[in-house]
Write a structure and sequence with these properties.
The longest helix is centred in the last third of the chain and has 18 residues. The protein has a domain of 224 residues: Dipeptide-binding Protein, domain 3 (Roll), CATH 3.10.105. A six-stranded mixed sheet has the order 17-21-16-20-18-19. With 528 residues, the protein is of the alpha+beta class. The protein is built from 14 helices and 24 strands.
Length: 528
């Protein structure tokens, strides 16, 4: 099966990633100009090959390319690959690479970069790479423009994982022989993309300038992209309202302010453009130590949370209550099952009874357990969510202390040091559970220092077997049965308590046109 991209019409525009994952098109009716957007919070690095942190994805994909991009129907569109061929048995995928592409330092891009990126970087260090490319045993490079992926078993989900954010192709000549996690490239990125990294003034802005040697002739049309770091929420809102910035995605503008801004003539708001990521707000629990090593306590927490309250009062109606371990968006694939641990309304009496039966009696002050709750440092909505959770859990005798730190400290605490008890976060479940869900629960995903994987250190032999089986099962009915069993185990054990399926908001100046032409993020066209 061969897919050629030469006959596909590319949308006019200069490729820039204005949101989470991919290279996107920004068009100005006359060439030149500067696009200003909000990066909230400041990225911990510019290394999308090491971390899937949202702020990294706002900036880095403007610098890097992936082998593929995707249209709104999730069909592949060529970036560094002009075409690909999947063998009849699904065990070989051959990518025909684009000729004449150079890295920003002038070195040629070749198939060796693809081989090195997948085998030496993404499969080893990326949060989702070990699952996305789990079946890739080797990559042959018969010539500079051909990369042949050899698979142990068919992996159709892999073909959804080649965007510039999800699987950025990195320069072998700048990483080979170095400690990938410590290499200078993380904060001084060199890619093949439409914009070159110029400057990062910490706490203020990141500047990217037009790549004059970009492989797509005539692009980019913009001269510069500036990602402004604006920690204060009210200042971000004011900057959007005044026209100082043109774009804020992934909740950069708090929902409470969006309610007002969306009434203005020159401001637009949309929830479109996030169809491929399936974001889920959640709490992670350290199941290896007291108090959350007690399953009854984890179950009681899920019973006492008013998920609709969070949506209505903190996210102002944008979201859908979680009903299980999997997003309901997996229902068309037959991979979604609601579980009893997720009631439609909080049941405080049942939660307290559960804890009483488990022997977790309150002390004289009514406290059954105390813990510190860490909050994802992505803005004021999450602080308010922490305040609500503190209040909700007090009803079952769980006394929480809130902790809110900067992004690097938080990432290190939760995913490197495991120095946490309960953590509020969100994960992208993505277009297939193998890519987005499995990393959260598999024993092999307990990977110290890798963000957004199994921080709870939950380990269940039966679940591991099911996850492995679900990844390779070709029969849709059998796969559905496997994931129903997975959902049942996770609904019982609850190492992670899902809160709600998120609906991200993008706020933009009305000068930005025709955004939402990609499923991973948004695309914006800017008129000068």
């Amino acid at each position: 099966m061969t897919r050629s991209f030469n006959t596909l019409r590319f949308l006019a525009g200069s490729l820039v990633a204005l949101a989470m994952t991919l290279s996107t098109n920004v068009f100005s009716q006359t060439a030149g100009g500067t696009m200003v957007m909000i990066a909230q919070p400041e990225p911990p690095s510019l290394a999308p090959y090491l971390s899937t942190s949202g702020p990294i994805g706002l900036v880095a994909p403007k610098v890097y390319n992936g082998l593929l991009d995707y249209d709104l129907d999730l069909n592949p569109i060529g970036e560094l690959a002009e075409s690909f061929n999947v063998s009849d048995d699904g065990l070989t995928v051959t990518f025909n690479l684009r000729e004449g592409v150079t890295w920003h330092d002038g070195e040629p891009f070749t198939s060796a970069d693809v081989q090195f990126t997948i085998m030496e970087v993404l499969k080893q260090f990326h949060p989702r790479g070990p699952n996305s490319f789990r079946e890739v045993s080797s990559i042959d490079t018969p010539d500079d423009l051909t990369a042949v992926f050899n698979l142990d078993r068919p992996a159709p989900y892999m073909m959804r994982a080649f965007s510039s954010y999800e699987s950025p192709i990195v320069p072998k000549h700048l990483l080979e022989g170095k400690d990938v996690r410590e290499a200078e490239l993380a904060n001084n990125p060199v890619g093949t993309g439409p914009f070159k990294f110029v400057e990062w003034k910490k706490g203020q802005y990141i500047r990217l300038d037009k790549n004059p040697d970009y492989w797509r002739e005539g692009y980019p049309l913009l001269d510069r992209i500036v990602a402004r770091i604006i920690p204060d929420a009210s200042t971000r809102t004011a900057a959007m309202e005044s026209g100082e910035v043109h774009y804020g995605a992934f909740g950069a503008i708090p929902n409470v302010d969006v309610v007002r801004l969306r009434e203005l003539d020159d401001i637009g708001v949309t929830t479109d453009g996030y169809a491929m990521i399936n974001p889920m707000a959640l709490i992670e629990l350290d199941v290896t130590e007291a108090p959350f090593d007690n399953k009854a306590l984890r179950q009681a927490i899920s019973l006492v949370i008013d998920r609709q309250f969070l949506i209505d009062n903190i996210w102002f109606g944008y979201g859908k209550p979680a009903t299980g371990a999997m997003s309901s968006n997996f229902e068309p694939l037959g991979l979604y099952t609601a579980t009893p641990g997720y009631p439609s309304e909080p049941d405080i009496d049942a939660a307290n009874a559960l804890l009483d039966d488990a022997g977790l009696k309150p002390d004289v002050d009514g406290v059954r357990a105390s813990a510190v709750i860490d909050l994802i440092p992505y803005g004021e909505d999450w602080r308010r969510a922490g305040e609500y959770l503190k209040q909700a859990m007090s009803a079952i005798g769980v006394d929480l202390e809130l902790r809110y730190e900067d992004v690097p400290t938080w990432l290190k605490r939760v995913y490197a040091d495991y120095d946490f008890e309960i953590n509020v976060n969100y994960f992208y479940q993505l277009p297939d559970p193998v890519i987005g869900v499995q990393r959260h629960y598999g024993t092999d995903q307990i990977r110290p220092g890798t963000p957004f994987v199994n921080s709870t250190r939950f380990s269940n032999e039966k679940l591991d077997e099911l996850l492995a089986a679900g990844a390779v099962e070709p029969d849709a009915t059998k796969r559905s049965d496997i994931y129903a069993e997975i959902s049942a185990i996770l609904g019982e054990e609850l190492p992670v308590v899902n809160l709600f399926e998120m609906e991200f908001l993008t706020v933009y100046n009305e000068k930005l046109k025709d955004h939402t032409t990609r499923p991973y993020s948004t695309i914006a066209y800017r008129e000068n």
